[in-house]
Amino acid sequence: VGGPAAGRNHVAYSAGAVAVLFLLFSAVHGALSLLEEREGGILDRVLAGPAGTGALVRGKLLFLVARGFVEVSFIFVAAWLVHGVDLPGHLPGFAATTLAAALAAAGLALLLTTACRTRRQAQTLANVVILIVSAVGGSMVPRFFMPPLLQDLGWLTPTTWALEAYSAVFWRD
């Protein structure tokens, strides 16, 4: 817990916190294109085809997960190169955690986006939800600084689960 390893562990936590926050915002930004496709008439053309909206939503989900995985990977590669976080030594755990976090972020983004009628509604709702989820989940302030009630509420957010998983991978091996 002490010495040089402690600093790298804190960097790994911070990298995870920043990565999950960015992941949520970028997933929403990507999911908003569904509303643009509806407004532009693309959705009507897709509905006329044999695949239907299911294929469009699944494709959007896969795109958001892949993009999120790459985005988080860049953040952790920077933490590895600049601050010495042992990314190569923890690659399988990192990959599994990042895939799960990207899937959760994409799912939440698609849920928030499809619950709204306009891009402006979706963007406003998503920004508020993401900021609350990130604050309660530990992206802005580590959860151990929070009162017990907020720490317990944090378990309802994908942010807490991702940060706990990154801590388990990088700090507790």
Describe this structure in words.
This protein is 79% helix and 0% strand. The protein has 8 helices and no strands. The longest helix has 32 residues, at 52-83. The model has no long low-confidence stretch (mean pLDDT 88).
Q: Which tags fit this structure?
A:
173 residues, mainly alpha
Provide the β-strand percentage band. under 5%
Oligomer: single chain
DSSP helix count? 8
SSE order, one letter for each helix or strand:
HHHHHHHH
DSSP summary, beta strand count = 0
Please outline the major beta sheet: none
Distance between the termini: 12 Å
Determine the mean pLDDT. 88
Question: What's the short version?
Answer:
By secondary structure, the protein is mostly helical.
Write the layout of secondary structure elements.
Blueprint: H1 4-31, H2 33-39, H3 42-48, H4 52-83, H5 91-114, H6 119-137, H7 148-154, H8 158-170
